[in-house]
Amino acid sequence: RLHIGMKLSPIKFLDPIHVERIFRKCNIDSGLIVKEVSHGSIAEELGVRPGDVVDSVNGECVATTVEVGILHMRKGRKGPRHTLSLRLNVSDDVEVFISDF
């Protein structure tokens, strides 16, 4: 199973005040906020930081960790090594990274 080293939480489960703050800062109201990044993980190597927002995986919008898992399983059927693309909203900038696992 893929472990990229992030603890994620759906934005929609946050307090409405936090959702509004994220919307004003990043212009999004759904997705997954990065709560933690594991030391030495793939996510850390790629520069992911707590507070970043994952809004799509492999080009498909995600709002829950279940959706991320489903997309990962679907991609994993194509073989043991594959590319996972996460789109992150980082403060006011949008960062896209793609890595082979």
From TrEMBL:
Q: Which residues form the PDZ domain?
A: 33-66
Q: Which Gene3D superfamilies match?
A: 2.30.42.10
- Please state what the protein is called: PDZ domain-containing protein
Q: Which organism is it from?
A: Aegilops tauschii subsp. strangulata (Goatgrass)
Species lineage, top-down? Eukaryota, Viridiplantae, Streptophyta, Embryophyta, Tracheophyta
